[in-house]
Design brief:
By secondary structure, the chain is of the alpha+beta class. The protein contains 4 helices and 19 strands. This is Fe2OG dioxygenase domain-containing protein.
Length: 354
């Protein structure tokens, strides 16, 4: 998300009715929605039917450079330092300048044995409303939730550096209402060291392998992994679209959910002004689910994960493709920032030096 304006106190409007993504598995999926616009943030998730059949594929996630993130994006590696290193050298996530083979690696433990092979459900269920430019693909339980999601959640929580970014927009202090972190680099030929505001970080191996799998099933290519951690129902993302110009027109964004189910709302930009109003689309994203937003969806729709009274931890991974340098500058500014780093220790997030 480009954080032009985000706050933790935004309360998205919601209708009382809601649906789950289970509906999408029917041949002619009917999106559950309502024209009511009454505020109701306390709707409870509907549990989806988990008895459906899956096409299961097993993919090996273990590469030869275990434990060290190497990116295929690092061909250009002139060790030119930016004038203003970002994050600054005293920032906890600061790494030494890149070398031709070592580009800001995020050192995380080797991929644990239970994650060496992950089962994927690669059946895509399209959810389309062409007249309204809604174009989604839903992969129910894209990652097998029995073992893989639990292990993956633990591994990412424990291994990644996390941030709670604070920034200012038009004189207003904004606290990002969730933990974030980002890896990858736009597709320009600019060397890793050639950035003014950020030092792109190589995508950790496990995320890179997941990204490659997502590329395979979507036919799209990506170069960023943005990761959110919603530690409780109080963490959220307010209505926004990821239609940033630095992603090019009609960007495909693949969004993977791990952990606690959370509501995912999509509202058309003109949902209020149309007569009758365009219903807000309401889904519940479960552990292992993947939603791919395509076509004009980002241009015409906004999405959110609203606050909830009761929710446990949830990780969200989005894969995107930035096409210009500004994509890297922006994503690192708003997902790493200049403040402190957090680590997952003994079951909770604590501020950490490294
Ligand atoms: O957590 C989610 O499902 C959505 C995250 C999102 O929209 C974003 O990071 O831009
Ligand atoms: Fe988004």
């Amino acid at each position: 998300m480009k954080r032009s304006a985000e706050s933790s106190f935004v309360s998205p409007k919601a209708s009382k009715r809601q649906g789950s993504l289970a509906g999408f598995l029917k041949p002619k999926p009917k999106l559950v929605s309502s024209s009511k616009t009454k505020v109701d943030d306390e709707v409870k998730p509907i549990v989806i039917d988990h008895e459906d059949d899956f096409e299961v594929h097993t993919t090996s996630l273990v590469g030869k450079d275990k434990g060290i993130a190497e990116s295929p994006l690092d061909a250009n590696t002139a060790d030119r330092l930016p004038n203003e290193p970002y994050p600054p050298p005293n920032h906890p996530s600061y790494h030494l300048p890149p070398t031709p083979t070592f580009n800001h690696p995020i050192l995380i433990p080797p991929i644990p044995a239970p994650l060496h092979q992950i089962h994927f459900n690669t059946i895509a269920n399209p959810i389309q409303k062409p007249t309204l430019d809604l174009d989604l693909l839903y992969f129910k339980r894209f990652i097998d939730p029995t073992v893989s999601t639990r292990e993956l959640t633990k591994y990412l929580l424990e291994g990644l550096p996390w941030y709670r970014v604070k920034y200012m927009v038009r004189g207003i202090n904004i606290n990002t209402p969730r933990f974030t972190t980002v890896f990858g680099k736009d597709s320009t030929e600019i060397p890793w060291g050639g950035y003014m505001k950020c030092r792109p970080r190589a995508i950790p191996e496990v995320l890179l392998k997941l990204m490659q799998k997502v590329e395979e099933v979507t036919g799209s290519t990506f170069n960023f992994a943005l990761v959110n951690y919603y530690s409780s129902g109080n963490d959220s993302i307010s209505y926004h679209s990821d239609s940033e110009s630095f992603l090019g027109p009609n960007p495909t964004i693949a969004s993977l959910s791990l952990g606690w189910p959370r509501d995912f709302f999509l509202r058309h930009r003109e949902y209020k002004s149309k007569s009758p109003p365009i219903p807000v689309e309401k889904f519940v994203l479960h552990d292992g689910d993947m939603v791919v937003m395509r076509g004009k969806t980002q241009h015409e729709w906004e999405h959110s994960v609203p606050k909830r009274k009761d929710a446990g931890g949830r990780i969200n991974i989005t894969f995107r493709k930035g096409v210009v340098r500004y994509a890297s500058e922006n994503y690192y500014t708003y997902n790493v920032g200049k403040g402190g780093m957090y680590r997952w220790r003994d079951g909770r997030m604590v501020e950490a030096e490294e």
